[in-house]
Specification:
This protein has 5 helices and 7 strands; from the N terminus they run βαααβββαβαββ.
């Protein structure tokens, strides 16, 4: 059984979601992390505020009832960005693809933007399967890699 559900992120989810995002391999794949990505207390405090902010749309991804990751949107430079992450033990099961499909059924704001490190082939394929089209390339300092890297920019219009 491969049941995937989304529910609004709750404060009680944050410890598990922190562990997923603080994983070294997950951080490397995400590349662009906050300067407190390894600080549990800072993460929890930040997310407690985020969960009260109407401009941040955050959902927890459940796989057969277990917390598998998160998905949501946030605004960067006036553009609504999709963000998602899956706990490493759940990788390779199609959960991110399914979660994005479910999320987009209720999220009708367009355009919607997504970004992925240019070498994060899984994330690129997930965005493309969801209908996002590559619209540009950016370069920036990726804290999790301690280097400037290339990032692909995607856009979903319909």
């Amino acid at each position: 059984m491969n049941q995937v559900e989304l529910r609004k992120t709750q404060i009680s989810d944050l410890d598990i979601l922190f562990d997923y995002q603080a994983d070294d391999e997950a951080g490397y794949m995400a590349a662009f992390v906050s300067n407190t990505w390894k600080d549990r207390d800072a993460y929890i405090a930040k997310w407690e505020k985020f969960l009260m902010d109407d401009s941040i749309n955050s959902w927890t991804i459940l796989h057969n009832g277990a917390i598998a990751g998160s998905i949501g949107t946030w605004v960067m430079d006036g553009e609504i960005q999709i963000t998602y992450g899956i706990g490493k033990q759940f990788w390779g099961r199609g959960l991110a693809t399914t979660a994005i499909e479910l999320f987009l059924m209720d999220m009708d704001t367009r355009p919607l933007y997504g970004r992925a490190a240019s070498d994060n082939i899984r994330s690129i394929k997930i965005l493309e399967k969801a209908g996002f089209k590559k619209t540009g390339i950016d370069r920036g300092f990726a804290l999790a890699r301690n280097a400037e890297i290339e990032e692909l920019i995607f856009r979903l219009d319909s």
